């Protein structure tokens, strides 16, 4: 077997602990406890192995990575391995001294999450009073002269504010604003009814982003991550299974994407037991949906199979129970009616800004353990 | 431009990738794979050399190459991308 091309990026989930409780969190429903987290020494080893393997970028994320007191040591390990580091943070805990320690350790850039343009709404969606800390964090990053990106997950409760969100990003000095329509896995799948936007909302927001993009050309980059339930086109999830990047969970489990832990029968390899090289090149988990040979149905003979890679395995599993089927987001999928029905469903009765609509992220889901829609 | 001493923007890293045997510009959310002699030019952008110095050094190193015509244009293009300051 020839080796797959080397990975470009490693998402390091340093901890699943977080002061925020966003109802669409990309962490799994079963959060890793702090006692099972990898040590800074082990992270340093993982990052050295990642560099050897070809990883160029690492996104130091969580949870909230600032909750790790040894974060600067992990940044320094990545930097000395030659990997470009980006901190992905809620901003809570990013004081000027902390920023300065991280920058001295070699941190290259910061991506800050924002839930809404308005303080009250942002705090309500996050389930935690954090807007003031975010504003402060943005200023601290700017003072340290590091590039700042904003990431905003878009859904029913904030899509109408997209213009104000762009204004906020510009005012806070962001070079890049990622407007990511919510993807339905894990916590977001659990909260799908509350988060699903209407088609009208989406088309208004899309127009706004298009005009703001022209207006801001050359100053602030606007990235729009498509709402795949509505577009009839499957997204090229992760650039293909085991093709571009890997995710290392707080306990050392390694996955092709942050959501893949929810797939049944996927034996999750762990850096405590195996080398990253073996995990990337040879583990059954990373080879399961690699390339195009596993495809069946409409994907097998489709000219787009090397463009969208059959869409998302986690979404195929969440909606059909079979991770090897064509992503139902694709209009060519025999299961596409499932997605259409969800996208056209009338919204529930509660107003979009009613916090009772959410199951907030926490140690365990409040209502049910499994997330089958 | 006269007097300009090109340097990589703060968030941009120029590095060689041993695994892919390629020269890269690494930015917060992207990687640019450098072709041809781009990396040789950018390695001289240290904030001390002026454009003329860079042209002279490259002309000495690559005799016969159209350095004087192409390098200033290339540097301007890279600056427009925001990767040089």
Short description:
The complex is a heterodimer of chains A (373) and B (85). Chain A has 373 residues and is of the alpha/beta class.
List strands and helices in order, with pairings:
The complex is a heterodimer of chains A (373) and B (85).
Chain A: E1 9-13, H1 40-53, E2 57-61, H2 71-81, E3 84-89, H3 96-105, E4 109-113, H4 119-126, H5 131-143, E5 148-154, H6 162-171, E6 176-181, H7 186-190, H8 192-195, H9 199-216, E7 221-225, H10 228-231, E8 245-248, E9 254-255, H11 276-281, H12 284-287, H13 297-300, H14 305-308, H15 313-320, H16 336-344
Parallel strand pairs in A: 1-2, 1-8, 2-3, 3-4, 4-5, 5-6, 6-7
Antiparallel strand pairs in A: 8-9
Helix pairs in contact in A: 1-2, 2-3
Chain B: E1 13-17, E2 22-27, E3 30-34, H1 38-42, H2 51-61, H3 67-80
Antiparallel strand pairs in B: 1-2, 2-3
Helix pairs in contact in B: 2-3
**What percentage of residues of chain B falls in helices of 4 or more residues?**
25-40%
Main sheet attributes: strand count, strand direction, barrel closure of chain A: 9 strands, mixed
The largest pleated sheet of chain B is described as: 3 strands, antiparallel
Number of helices of chain B: 3
Q: Beta-strand level of the residues of chain B, as a percent range?
A: 15-25%
- The CATH architecture of the domain at 9-225 in chain A can be given as Alpha-Beta Barrel
Cα shape of chain B: globular
Number of separate strands of chain A: 9
How much is the average pLDDT of chain B? Answer: 94
Biggest protein-protein interface?
Answer: A-B, 19 and 12 residues
Overall mean confidence score, pLDDT of chain A: 93
Strand order, largest beta sheet of chain B: 1-2-3
Tell me the number of helical segments of chain A per DSSP (H or I, 4 or more residues long). 16
Subunit structure (chain A): Interacts with PqqD. The interaction is necessary for activity of PqqE.
Region (Disordered) (chain A): 344-373
Binding site for [4Fe-4S] cluster (chain A): 18, 22, 25
EC number (chain A): 1.21.98.4
């Amino acid at each position: 077997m020839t080796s797959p091309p080397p990975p470009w990026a490693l998402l390091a989930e340093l901890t699943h602990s977080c002061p925020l409780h966003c109802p669409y969190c990309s962490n799994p429903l079963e959060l890793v406890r702090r006692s099972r987290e990898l040590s800074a020494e082990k992270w340093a080893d993982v990052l050295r192995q990642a560099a050897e393997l070809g990883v160029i970028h690492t996104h130091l994320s969580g949870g909230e990575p600032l909750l790790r007191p040894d974060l600067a040591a992990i940044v320094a390990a990545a930097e000395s391995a030659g990997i470009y580091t980006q901190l992905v943070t809620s901003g809570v805990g990013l004081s000027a001294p902390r920023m300065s320690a991280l920058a001295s350790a070699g941190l290259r850039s910061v991506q800050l999450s924002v839930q809404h343009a308005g303080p009250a709404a942002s705090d309500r969606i996050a389930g935690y009073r954090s807007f003031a800390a975010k504003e402060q964090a943005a200023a601290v990053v700017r003072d340290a002269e590091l590039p700042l990106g904003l990431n905003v997950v878009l859904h029913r409760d904030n899509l109408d504010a997209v213009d104000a969100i762009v204004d906020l990003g510009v005012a806070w000095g962001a070079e890049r604003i990622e407007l990511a329509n919510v993807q339905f896995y894990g916590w977001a799948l659990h909260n799908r009814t509350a988060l699903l936007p209407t088609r009208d909302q989406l088309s208004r927001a899309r127009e706004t982003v298009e005009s703001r993009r022209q207006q801001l050309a050359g100053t602030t980059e606007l990235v729009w991550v498509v709402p795949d339930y509505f577009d009839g086109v499957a997204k090229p999830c992760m650039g293909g299974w085991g093709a571009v990047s890997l995710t290392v969970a707080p306990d050392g489990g390694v996955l092709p994407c942050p959501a893949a832990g929810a797939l049944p029968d996927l034996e999750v390899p762990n850096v405590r037991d195996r080398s990253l090289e073996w995990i990337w090149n040879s583990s059954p988990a990373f080879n399961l949906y690699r390339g195009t040979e596993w495809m069946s149905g409409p994907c097998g003979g489709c000219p787009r199979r090397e463009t969208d890679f059959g869409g998302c395995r986690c979404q195929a599993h969440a909606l059909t129970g079979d991770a090897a089927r064509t992503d139902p987001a694709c209009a060519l999928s025999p299961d596409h009616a499932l997605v259409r029905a969800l996208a056209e469903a009338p919204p529930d009765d509660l107003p979009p800004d009613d916090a009772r609509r959410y199951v907030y992220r926490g140690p365990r889901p409040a209502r049910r353990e499994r997330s089958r829609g | 431009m006269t007097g300009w001493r090109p340097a990589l923007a703060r968030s941009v890293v120029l590095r060689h990738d041993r695994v892919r045997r390629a020269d890269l510009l690494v930015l917060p959310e992207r990687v640019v794979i450098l072709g041809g002699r781009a990396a040789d030019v950018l390695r001289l952008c240290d904030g001390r050399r002026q454009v003329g110095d860079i042209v002279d050094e490259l002309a000495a190193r690559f005799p016969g190459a159209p350095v004087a015509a192409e390098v200033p244009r290339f540097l301007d293009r890279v600056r427009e991308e925001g990767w040089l300051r």
